[in-house]
């Protein structure tokens, strides 16, 4: 019961769940759409026996062969996969088939407004007949190249990001959610309509181009993520057919609109276990001109390529048969903070999207707490000089910091802060560059392109920066307490031993603190690389334990672990010694000098 109540408190603060519940409230039938979804210990009246009986009935009814689907993907033939499906999972009761799904109907009010404190957004959610064209629509929607919907919205500062999700699917019908991060929902909604009209004019060649992009996006996923997309996502299906008619039908389909706006909350509405400040959305009239849309394939536009003669130093790791992949990142221990990294990503978005249309791929992202740019270049003969040079020139330009979006989960907020709080060195100018794969000719060509960067390329390695120590408390709104402890690997110690130690700690930590002590709903101890430092990370979040108690729990676990690590026969004992502080210091509650802790407390 305590675990259910803790998860209830967590989901009450989870903005995506609250917003999805607001959209579902617009459905009038079936009644289950507005029924209880999440609940607290108070709602369950503390009757553990009744709860266990209800859960048992639910499992016996629904966790049966006729009400479940098994999805398999692998290198085997369809016949072999069928044989595997026939014997898996063993012992599952056949059960009764589910009754036919009742039709989904929308209520009288389908334009809703949700009062939020941050992250305004527009949800546009049409009910449509299932079609392979949804995946093609998604590819057009996620495009960020010049001429796309998102590029135009960002240029006018109407929206910052977009996502496409399924709210519901049955055999024939699907409920889509187009989600735009925006504080101007009326203008964005109008531009979506213009965009759907423009999509009806796309040529078969353009539709085929975006269809191939969707296949490339899918093929780049891990096997497990591919399987998820096949089961309830956007796996590519048949080639485009009837796309113009699909877009026309989408415009007139029954739809729910939800404007999440920073307005004064009105009377709350109880729905699905949430209390939401939900009201009718009264749209303001808008008459902004339509964006000028352009779809690919098309020319590179105003980008002009130079012919550099000099070459920058470049580390080349040849791998026969692999396409060239360029990695660029700031010098070690000098990664920009989150605000600067996000701003750099905004500048690079349209250029990386243009590279994708040219047959390549690029991503600016956080990797182990450090920002880096990866560029996979097209096959030989299709070198996009102008686009690559524009990307490289962009790296030398200054950027204005961008405020990170607020995080509603406390432990995620701490994780986002950790890399900045660990570092002590200043920012060294320049970029580290390495090329994996490709030929010697590719390496020479890329080295010449890198010479266009005005900052130093592959400068001398800075001395390792010391890791900042101590305990830092961060105040953040919410009712939970979270603790993050990072223990860096000592100089000269074995990284392999650290990783083996983390594998040993992970299940023990979870068993003791999550299962036995029921500390909270976030309990993790694992290996982590953060801001070019390897270490052991402990993460805890609890709705009712305070910071000092969480820290004591982590220390107690390490003390119990220390005798095991000091055994002479143990493979870790000499490679990564875990030195406990003297008993007197432990009683005073100080952190070992190598430990960096961050506490969030409401």
Characterization of the model:
The structure is a single chain. The protein has four domains: 2-86, no CATH class; 105-280, 2-Layer Sandwich (Cytochrome Bc1 Complex, Chain A, domain 1), CATH 3.30.830; 315-450, 2-Layer Sandwich (Cytochrome Bc1 Complex, Chain A, domain 1); 470-601, Cytochrome Bc1 Complex, Chain A, domain 1 (2-Layer Sandwich). Strands 5-6-4-7-3-10 form a six-stranded mixed sheet, with helices on both faces. Strands 11-15-12-14-13 form a five-stranded mixed sheet, with helices on one face. A five-stranded mixed sheet has the order 16-20-17-19-18, sandwiched between helices. It has helices at 2-12, 15-24, 48-62, 78-86, 133-142, 149-155, 185-199, 204-219, 223-232, 243-252, 338-357, 385-395, 410-422, 440-450, 495-516, 547-565, 583-588, and strands spanning 27-29, 105-106, 111-115, 121-129, 161-169, 173-181, 255-261, 269-271, 274-276, 278-280, 315-317, 325-329, 361-367, 370-376, 432-436, 470-475, 481-488, 522-530, 533-542, 596-601. The protein is globular, with a radius of gyration of 27 Å. The chain is built from 17 helices and 20 strands. Strand 18 and strand 19 (533-542) form a beta hairpin. The two termini are 24 Å apart. The chain is an alpha+beta fold and 602 residues long. The model is unreliable at 568-594 (pLDDT under 50). Pfam families: PQQ_syn_pqqF_N_2 (PF22454), PqqF-like_C_4 (PF22456). GO terms for molecular function: metalloendopeptidase activity; zinc ion binding. It comes from Klebsiella pneumoniae.
């Amino acid at each position: 019961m305590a675990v259910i109540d803790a998860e209830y408190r967590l989901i009450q603060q989870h903005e995506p769940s609250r917003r999805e519940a607001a959209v579902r409230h617009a459905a009038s039938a079936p009644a289950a759409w507005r029924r209880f979804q999440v609940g607290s210990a108070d709602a369950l009246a503390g009757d553990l026996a009744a709860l266990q009986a209800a859960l048992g009935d639910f499992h016996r009814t629904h966790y049966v062969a006729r009400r479940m689907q098994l999805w398999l993907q692998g290198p085997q033939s369809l016949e072999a996969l069928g044989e595997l499906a026939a014997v898996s999972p063993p012992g599952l009761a056949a059960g009764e088939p589910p009754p036919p799904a009742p039709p989904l109907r929308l209520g009288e009010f389908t334009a809703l407004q949700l009062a939020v404190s941050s992250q305004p957004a527009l949800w546009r959610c049409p009910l449509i007949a299932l079609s392979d064209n949804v995946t093609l629509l998604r590819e057009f929607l996620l495009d960020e190249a010049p001429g796309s919907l998102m590029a135009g919205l960002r240029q006018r500062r109407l929206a910052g990001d977009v996502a496409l999700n399924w709210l519901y699917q049955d055999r024939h019908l699907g409920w889509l959610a187009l989600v735009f991060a925006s504080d101007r929902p009326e203008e964005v909604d109008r531009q979506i309509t213009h965009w759907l009209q423009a999509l009806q004019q796309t040529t078969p060649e353009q539709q085929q181009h975006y269809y191939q992009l969707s296949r490339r996006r899918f093929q780049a996923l891990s096997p497990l993520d591919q399987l998820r997309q096949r089961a309830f996502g956007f796996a590519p299906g048949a080639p485009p057919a009837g796309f113009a008619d699909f877009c026309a039908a989408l415009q007139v389909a029954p739809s729910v609109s939800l404007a999440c706006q920073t307005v004064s909350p009105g009377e709350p509405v109880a729905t699905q276990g949430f209390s939401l400040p939900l009201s009718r959305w009264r749209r303001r009239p808008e008459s902004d001109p339509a964006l000028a849309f352009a779809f690919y394939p098309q020319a590179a536009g105003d980008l002009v390529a130079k012919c550099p003669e000099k070459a920058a130093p470049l580390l080349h790791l040849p791998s026969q048969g692999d396409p060239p992949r360029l990695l660029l990142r700031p010098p070690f221990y000098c990664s920009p903070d989150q605000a600067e990294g996000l701003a750099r990503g905004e500048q690079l978005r349209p250029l990386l999207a243009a590279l994708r249309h040219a047959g390549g791929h690029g991503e600016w992202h956080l990797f182990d707490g450090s920002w880096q740019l990866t560029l996979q270049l097209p096959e030989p003969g299709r070198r996009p000089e102008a686009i690559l040079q524009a990307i490289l020139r962009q790296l030398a330009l200054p950027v204005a910091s961008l405020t990170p979006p607020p995080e509603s989960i406390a432990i995620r907020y701490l994780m986002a802060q950790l890399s900045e709080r660990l570092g002590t060195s200043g920012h060294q100018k320049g970029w580290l560059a390495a090329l994996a794969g490709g030929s010697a000719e590719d390496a020479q060509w890329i080295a010449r392109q890198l010479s266009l960067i005005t900052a130093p390329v592959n400068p001398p390695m800075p001395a390792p920066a010391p890791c900042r120590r101590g305990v830092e408390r961060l105040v953040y709104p919410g009712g939970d307490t979270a603790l993050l402890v990072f223990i860096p690997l000592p100089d000269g110690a074995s990284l392999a031993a650290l990783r083996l130690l983390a594998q040993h700690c992970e299940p023990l930590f979870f068993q003791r603190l999550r299962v036995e002590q029921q500390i909270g709903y976030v309990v993790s101890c694992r290996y982590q690389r953060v801001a070019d430092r390897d270490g052991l990370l402990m993460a805890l979040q609890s709705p009712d334990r305070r910071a000092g108690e969480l820290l004591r729990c982590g220390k107690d676990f390490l003390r119990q672990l220390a005798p095991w690590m000091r055994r002479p026969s143990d493979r870790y004992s000499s490679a990564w010694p875990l030195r406990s502080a003297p008993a007197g210091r432990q009683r005073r509650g100080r952190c070992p000098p190598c430990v960096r802790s961050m506490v969030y407390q409401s």
